[in-house]
Amino acid sequence: MQILTVSRDRRLHEELRQILETFEELCPVIRAVVEPLRVGDAARTWRPQVALVEMPSDLSGLTAITTEIHAASPETIVVGVFQSDPVSVDSTGSGFLIQAIRTGVRDFVRRPISRADVGQMLERIHSGTNRVSIRPATIVSFISNKGGVGKTTLAVNTAIGLAHHAPERVLLIDGSLQIGLCAPQLGLKPRTSLLDAVRERDRLDETLIRQLTTRHESGLDLLAAPADAIEATEIDDDFIARILTLARRAYDYVVVDTFPIFDRTVMTVLDLSDRAFIVLDNLVPTVLAVSRLLHVLDGLKLDSQRQRLVLNRVVNVFGGLQRDDIEGKIGRPIDYLIPYHRAIMSGGNIGVPFLSQRHPFSGTDRKLRRLIQDIVELHQVPMPLRVDHDPEFVPSEADRAQSVTNLVNPSPA
Question: pTM for this one?
Answer without folding.
Answer: 0.70
